Amino acid sequence: FNLSLTQKEIASAIKGVLPDSWAQARFQEVVYSMATYVKGESNSIAITIDLSDRKAAALQVLAETVDRKLSPLFSSLPTCSLAEFQRSLQNLPPSGIPSCRPYGVSYEQFKSMLPVSITDVLQQMVIDRIPDRWTYTDADIRRSMGVDNQEILDKARGWVQTGYTFTDADLKDELNSDEEETLEDIRGWIADGYTVDQTDLRDAISDKESDLDSFDDARSAIHSVRKWLWVIILIPFIVLIAIGFLAGRDWKGRVLWAFTTLFIASLIIYVALTVAYSHSIKPDIKDAFELSDKTGLELVLLEKGQEVAVNFGDSFFGGIKTRAIWTMIFSVLIVGGTIAWETKGEDAKRMIRTRRRRSGHEDQSHPISTGRF
Predict the structure, then answer these.
(1) In this predicted model, what pLDDT tens digit does every residue of 6-30 receive, in sequence order?
(2) 18, 25, 92, 365 — which has fewest CB within 10 A?
């Protein structure tokens, strides 16, 4: 009838009658059979997939596809009498369509009057070319893998059946001379530990004489700073003493001013350092190590380096925060002790004044007459 089905339409119809549940069941059969083959429990694979019932469903889908194409043609034909329609069928050329349709006849009735059955044509041209059963064998596996990879399948079956032994000789065969030397160095470090002394450090930076000179100059400067470090530490105490003497009028006021200032400064340092380290410094340390595109040994080394850097930061800044806490505690104890001492002194003075007032009152209440003696 001058209609055609494309290969895509036929393939789509066949795929449409293979639902996921049906494919999943067949897939499990394939996996199970391949597993028994690889494990050596069987020496061949023969997975038979029955397609006969699926072929009948595919035929129905293809027939519906043809109906969707033929029905508009039927509707576009002019109407005629039944006799005229019969004459049109007698003179119908191959692959042609009648020139008219009988008046009052439905599409299904029209199809039954045609000399060719659409279902029979589809059965002959498409469905009969699909086998009723399809068998997947180990030969199909090997063909799909290619000649170069068939040896891998045989090796895999042998490893599963008899086990796989990988020795130090096999490992060394996979490495070149430089990699083998690195491996031996790593094994030695793991077994005996790894020691770095000043000679190794100087050798590592001695590629340029200027670098080594700069390193020595830096060490000398650090040594000089350490010698006069007590002066740097002494400066804050001098400032505290100056604050105490300038702000306090007596020893109590001077002590309170000095150690209250020390407490406030320690608190500010503790809070600022905690916030800065948690929200800025520590994330920056982690971001300094780019791990997203690294794999293998490089990833392991970078992760370890990140861990060491974070631990160093935690230890360094944690030590400062601990000293700030102890300084605050020491300041609170000094301030509290001073206040308590002053309160105790005031109480003692108050008691002395009370006793003196009482003693003077008693002397006036009971005067001694010296004239009697």
Answers:
(1) 888 888 888 888 888 888 888 888 7
(2) 365
